[in-house]
Amino acid sequence: MLKKDRVNLKRNSSFWFMGFLAIAVLGMMFFLSSSFFFEEKIPMLNTDLNKENSLTGSGKLTINSWLYDENKNEMEVTLITKDVKTIDDNIVFEAFQRNGDQQNLEVKNVFSEDGIYVIKIFGISKEFQQVALDLIRIKENEFENVEGSDEEKKETKEIVTTLYSDQRVVNKKNIKVKTKNEYAVYLSDVLIKQAEIEYKDTRNLIQKEQKKQNELEKEIALNKENMIYETAEEQLETESIINGYQMRIDESKQKIEEFEARGTILKDKKEKLELRKREIDLSYIE
Question: Tens of pLDDT along 161-178?
Answer without folding.
Answer: 999 999 999 999 999 888
